[in-house]
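User: Some background: our group keeps a shared notebook of sequences we're curious about, and every so often someone picks one and asks for a predicted structure to add to the entry. Today it's my turn. The entry only has the sequence so far, pasted here. Could you supply the structure so I can complete it?
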Amino acid sequence: MGYEHLKELDYIHRQAKVRKHSWFIKLCANIFERNIPNWFCKWWTLYGPTIKILPESYKKLYLEWIDISPKLTRLQEDNIFFEGISVMYFFIEFSIPLIMRWSIEVNTTSEGFPCLQRVFYTKFWSKLLQKNPEGKLHGQEILDLINVTISRL
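Assistant: Of course. Here's the predicted structure to add to the notebook entry:
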């Protein structure tokens, strides 16, 4: 590989560190008014968050909710189920926001050639765990909604 090519890869790598992108994502429960499109389910499977990003208070409620959710039961009965669908429905039904970002990293292929790869990350929006000036959690409304929904099922 020529020296100029390595210089170009080095430049791209330096630029990638500067040009990171992140998004605040909050899905509205109105999405359930129609069928969720297949492309979105595929996108969620590839790039969406997992249960691992949820703090313990949310994770505990998620584990209760998946056992009694009528939407998930209906999906299982209709044989419409894929890995990650329960997490997707939890985030959508309760409009739980998340932060998603991607960055470019220089890596090598299995043959040893340098290449650029886009790496995706998701994380829980930590502001929901912070208290407002009145001492109430910013995300308390979401926790209350989940609790009420579980108690009604």
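Suggested note for the entry: The CA atoms of residues 42 and 132 lie 36 Å apart. Strands lie at 21-25, 98-108, 114-124.
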